[in-house]
Amino acid sequence: MDSGNTVWVTGSKGFLGSVVCHSFEQAGFTVVGTDEELSVCEPERLEAFVEEVRPAVVVNCAGIRRDATTMGTRAKAYEVNALGARNVAVAANVIGATVVQISSDDVYSSKLDEPVNEFDGPHPNSAYGKSKRAGEMMVRDITSDHLIVRSSWLYHAYSGRFKGVMDAAQAGGRYEARTDQFAAPTSVRTYMNFLIEAIKREKKGTFHLVSHGRASRYEFAAKVLEYAGYDPEKVLVPTSDAKTAENVVLESMMLEMAGVQVPTWEEDLAAYMKSVGLYAPKA
What we know:
The chain is of the alpha/beta class. It is about 40% helix and about 15% strand. It has helices at about 15-25, 45-55, 75-95, 125-140, 160-170, 190-200, 215-230, 230-235, 255, 265-275, and strands at about 5-10, 30-35, 55-60, 100, 145-150, 155, 175-180, 180-185, 185, 205-210, 215, 235-240, 245. The protein has a 6-stranded parallel sheet with strand order 2-1-3-4-5-10, with helices on both faces. Strands 11-8-13 form a 3-stranded mixed sheet. Helix 1 crosses helix 6 and helix 7 (about 215-230) packs across helix 10 (about 265-275).
């Protein structure tokens, strides 16, 4: 095994982990994926594994999801999202591997007045966001050889809200979409293109890997349907709830400062739907 070209992915069977594994393989890397059989909460086993595999890069996708984190389960969230991230970083540090810590826009407040970039200090207001922020800080404290990547509303065609919208349209059904939750939708295709390029260029530090712009969940779903050739008004049911309204828009300032052309979320969506054969807007 060429360890210099090996990427170890934790949480490899999850929504993002499976995409990360496939994308790195397509880019020519040797990928070793682990999931529940190797918990990030077992530091001694992690260190033994990393000594055996000796990857050049460790991508930590393992974590307790946002929708599974409540005040009652926050101890588990901290154990996995914070201490687990620390354990992975310690293991990677043993052999001098680069740590890629997968993070999210939840490290910021859910109600922001303006977009935030990598130079804006995070202030999470949810148990999940606090656990992810703690994970970032632990990775940063343990090793300088790290890449912390934040994103928001990652989507692909095979699960999640994207699939839900398309399934509803194809079945002649209806789909509820929030008009009061805003972020920067980003395809896994664009996200992985940015991430793999950052790895190849040996970038370090914190990056926001998101498309440019802002959309509500309703606006995003409507554009998905429009690009697929459906009438959004016949499918979507607008909903809102002041208690859970959100406005968290990330800006990819570090990418832009590096001269990277960041697509708008509409451009990103159109390109992604073309790549998976779903782009068929009506004339």
